[in-house]
From TrEMBL:
Keyword annotations of the record: DNA-binding, Transcription, Transcription regulation
Recorded GO MF terms: DNA binding; DNA-binding transcription factor activity
The protein, known as: GntR family transcriptional regulator
Transmembrane portions of the chain: none
Pfam families xrefs: GntR (PF00392)
Keyword DNA-binding: yes
Superkingdom in the source lineage: Bacteria
Organism of origin: Enterocloster clostridioformis
HTH gntR-type domain span: 5-73, 250-318
């Protein structure tokens, strides 16, 4: 677990960088202690200490009963300190903008297909500004519209990912710096709106991909030019990439619960057989008995095990009535919908991500995967997903895919009514199709097979929510598809 001092330094360094790079311009409101707590997953004590340090160093000023205000006047992009701050993150910035070319086009294409743009708070203003010719000082309308689009979709993953990208992008610097290459792209705003509001997903996807590639190239050229212009800036060889903990932190006992559910539903712990003793499980997970027993109590309450005094706990198929009762719990119901949204998210990004990872597979690695997926207790899609993650060359993509896939991994086992044999056969069909495509060096078919699994899983789970759990609201979540981008 991260130490208190480490948390403080991480948050302080990040906020200081956001002020220096112009994400919090002078005169703008700073984050309150509550906002800091929610955004960085920290306690009030750490939030207050970070705010106090920034105030002492002259970056913000406090106001009675109001959020602090940024007062640092050095956030002009042309200043030496701002340039050095951005250059110190050059490696992660290049990876971030390259990752955006993979993630953003399918998400924007999907959410824009079913959105009434006139309901977005800033759409009319942006459209009017674009017609009159977009000026550099109006650039903030563009990310604002994108954020409003993702918020309107109802999927929290879209909003979380875009907000994280925007936080680390240093976009104010690149759009307000002298001779910025990105400023020239503001002239495309009217075309951007025209494409986004059209009903041609393939055309939309291609245009957005090309636009993001031009953006990534402009950032690369700007950083290269600044390195030559400011040779005195101290540039560290390596830098921490702050993408850990993408989603909310999960308590240890919940992590154990998730792992046990996965093992029971996939057959690693066979039905009607005893689980290992609590002492052995506690030793395996490296936790205290009280933590392990808390997970076991939750597992028992969800209907996955029945316990006998002294003898231990037996794995069992969860009765449908127990499943229905479980989702009546507000926390489990929230998890059920979060799982559906995660599947929707993965169905859209897994294809482009798999396409990106495809060149990293070798004949030897494919043979290893084929062997692993056939092993008792193996989860075929997990084996393939782990291999995809290892072959990704961009850290943001790796973290996004790994953390979201891990969330979906246990949830699929928890909310699917298929038995272990059915689940494995279903997964093997898609995994084998993906592996065959890789053997044929067909990256497009490989991407479609991976995306197809998550899209199929979404449709299946959505139907089960309605049929088994009587959750009618599941019908309102739009079914995702990656193939219409081909």
């Amino acid at each position: 677990m991260e130490e208190s001092e480490g948390r403080f330094n991480r948050v302080y360094t990040d906020l200081k960088g956001r002020i220096i790079s112009g994400q919090f311009p002078a005169g703008s409101s700073f984050l309150s202690a509550e906002q800091l707590r929610q955004e960085y997953q920290i306690g009030f004590h750490t939030a207050r200490n970070v705010t106090a340090r920034l105030r002492e160093e002259g970056y913000i000023v406090s106001r009675n009963r109001k959020a602090p205000v940024v007062c640092w006047e050095g956030s002009v992009p042309s200043t030496h300190s701002a340039v050095c701050e951005v250059l110190s993150h050059r490696g992660s910035l290049l990876e971030l903008y390259e990752s955006l070319t993979v993630i953003l086009p399918p998400l924007l294409t999907f959410v824009s297909q079913s959105c009434d743009f006139w309901l977005l708070p800033h759409y009319a203003q942006l459209k009017k500004t674009a017609i009159r010719k977009m000026r550099p000082q109006n650039w903030r309308l563009l990310p604002l519209i994108c954020q409003e689009l993702f918020d309107a979709s109802g999927n929290p993953f879209f909003s979380e990912i875009y907000a994280r990208f925007h936080r680390y992008s240093h976009l104010p610097f690149f759009l307000e710096a002298e001779d910025s290459y990105l400023c020239e792209m503001l002239e495309d705003t009217e075309e951007f709106l025209s494409v986004l509001t059209s009903n041609h997903p393939k055309k939309k996807y291609d245009w957005l991909t090309a636009s993001q590639q031009r953006t990534a190239l402009a950032v690369h050229d700007t950083l290269y030019r600044l390195e030559k212009k400011y040779p005195s800036c101290h540039l560290p060889e390596e830098e921490p990439f702050q993408w850990t903990g993408l989603y909310e932190r999960t308590p240890v006992y919940v992590q154990i619960l998730q792992d046990l559910i996965t093992k029971i539903t996939t057959g690693a712990y066979p039905l009607e057989q005893y689980l290992p003793h609590e002492e052995d499980l506690a030793r395996e997970y490296g936790v205290a008995l009280t933590t392990l027993r808390k997970a076991m109590a939750e597992l028992r309450g969800m209907g996955y095990i029945r316990t006998y005094n002294v003898k231990g706990s037996i794995a069992q198929k969860r009765p449908v009535e127990a499943a229905r009762h479980t989702v009546q719990n507000p926390v489990h119901r929230q998890n059920a919908f979060r799982f559906l949204y995660a599947l929707q998210f993965l169905a859209l990004i897994a294809g482009p991500i798999a396409h990106r990872a495809a060149p990293g597979f070798t004949t030897k690695s494919l043979e290893e995967i084929e062997f692993q997926v056939q092993q008792p207790g193996a989860v075929p899609i997990t084996v393939l997903a782990d291999a995809i993650s290892r072959n990704l060359d961009l850290e943001p993509l790796r973290v996004i895919f790994r953390e979201t896939e891990h969330l979906v991994r246990w949830s699929y086992c928890a909310f699917s009514e298929r038995n272990a044999g059915q689940q494995k056969r279903h997964m093997l069909t898609h995994v084998q199709s993906a592996l065959n495509a890789l053997k044929a060096s067909d990256k497009d078919s490989f991407a479609n097979a991976v995306a197809g699994y998550y899209s199929n899983a979404f449709s299946q789970i959505c139907a089960q929510y309605v049929q088994y759990y009587k959750i009618k609201d599941a019908k309102s979540i739009v079914s995702p598809s990656y193939e219409w981008l081909q």
